[in-house]
Design a protein that fits this description.
By secondary structure, the chain is mainly α. The chain has a domain of 55 residues. Helices cover 55% and strands 4% of the residues. The chain contains 2 helices and 2 strands; from the N terminus they run ββαα. A two-stranded antiparallel sheet has the order 1-2.
């Protein structure tokens, strides 16, 4: 049995989010070094909000809420994608 503490896997910081056709500058990127478990927990929280925004936006015919949920879901996906890369290392 090892006495060394295991360091948690962390995000690698390679995932970037681009919005719009032909965009070459990312709107945001995931920072390296975030514990993957924390990134996944935050993505889960965001997806819960996305679900509520989507339902409310559709039921109230509010495109702004639907677009907000679209952007938040992209952030959640970026978190999950980068955490997945970090867990592979």
């Amino acid at each position: 049995m090892s006495t060394e503490e295991e360091t948690p896997n962390t995000t690698v910081g390679k995932t970037k989010f681009y919005q719009g056709e032909g965009m070459t500058q990312p709107l945001f990127c995931i920072e390296p070094g975030i514990p993957c478990q924390h990134a996944r927990e935050q993505a889960s929280e965001l997806l819960g909000v996305v679900r509520e925004l989507t339902i409310t936006g559709v039921m109230e015919d509010n495109p702004q809420l639907v677009w907000a949920s679209h952007y938040l879901s992209a952030l959640a996906k970026a978190l999950l994608d980068d955490a997945e890369l970090g867990m592979a290392h």
